[in-house]
Design a protein that fits this description.
290 residues; TIM Barrel; eight-stranded parallel β-barrel; Xylose isomerase-like TIM barrel domain-containing protein; Xyl_isomerase-like_sf; IolE/XylAMocC-like; Xyl_isomerase-like_TIM-brl
Length: 290
């Protein structure tokens, strides 16, 4: 039977990593996770995964803990920095990098098409090295220019051989769209899947555009952070998202091997939170941990 390997986005334990990176990685491994996706938000000065370590040192640490890196967000994404970043990740053994937060607000169609051109160039640089580039969504990609969403425009104006996607099912749902339909539509480009969960009781409606923020606003990053209520996240498998249906649909995607758990906010200790998500996620079929 087909099964997705389960990983963890290290953003879920970012505060612990900042305080003690090696001890935190050790705890992630002890919790039972084998696969990790990193998030480097200091890519202007750090070529790697946000630890300010050489690729050799980072690889040694991961190998000793039995951890495998399966992706990394790189922010900001700058063409002059990209060769050094890709060199690092090749040495580390990571075959794909992505980006998420730095390209909104989308401003106008010309701006968006220029971003698509940039994504193609990044994808070409990755492909030349035997790597992949992927784009991660939030809810802003489901704003519209005319009758098309930003997400549709990105998909239509980027090369499917160069630009892949990491779908975040939580943010697709909070944009008022059906992640199952989008996963089916773009299944050939889907290389990573982010899974969060939405609590049964929440201070906000599940759709952000239902009174939290205006659908046509130019949403800046500070605005995104200000409207992202920490109480709208819960440990994965304890909320209301149709996770088994998501897994069943994901299994049809030919290039998808990993489903990545991510916790933006928690009321628990970060390590306890990812342990609870692991336990909650073990009730689902179609996934494996080894």
């Amino acid at each position: 039977m087909l099964a997705l390997k389960v990983g963890i986005q290290l953003y879920s334990v970012r505060q612990a990593l900042q305080a003690n990176p090696f001890q935190t990685l050790e705890k992630v491994a002890e919790a039972g996770y084998k696969y990790v996706e990193a998030a480097n938000h200091n890519a202007l000065t750090d070529d790697g995964v946000g630890f300010d370590l050489s690729a050799k040192e980072m690889k040694k640490a991961l190998d000793e803990l039995g951890l495998q890196i399966v992706g990394c967000h790189v922010n900001p994404l700058k063409m002059d920095r990209l060769p050094a970043v890709l060199d690092y990740h090749q040495e580390l053994g990571n075959k794909q990098i992505g980006c998420d937060i730095e390209f909104y607000p989308y401003q106008d169609m010309d701006y968006l098409l220029r971003r698509c051109e940039l994504f193609n160039k990044v994808g070409e640089m990755c492909k030349e090295r035997g790597m992949r580039y992927y784009y991660h969504n939030h809810y802003q990609e489901f704003q519209k220019f005319g009758d098309k969403t930003v997400y549709e425009i990105i998909m239509e104006n980027t090369d499917p051989e160069l630009v892949f996607i990491e779908m975040d099912t939580y943010w697709i749902t909070r944009a008022g769209h059906d992640p199952l339909k989008l996963m089916e539509k773009y299944q050939d480009r889907l290389v990573l899947l982010h899974q969060k969960d939405f609590p049964k009781e929440s201070p906000q409606p599940i759709v952000m555009y239902d009174g939290v923020i205006e659908r046509n606003k130019d949403i800046t990053y500070p605005m995104f952070e200000d409207t992202k209520d920490p109480q709208c996240f819960t440990e994965i498998g304890t909320g209301v998202l149709p996770i088994q249906d998501i897994i069943n649909t994901a299994l049809k995607a030919p290039n998808l091997d990993y489903i990545i758990l991510e916790q933006d906010h928690t009321n628990l200790d970060e390590i306890e939170s990812i342990k609870k998500s692991m336990q909650g996620f073990k009730k689902y079929s179609g996934v494996k941990w080894e």
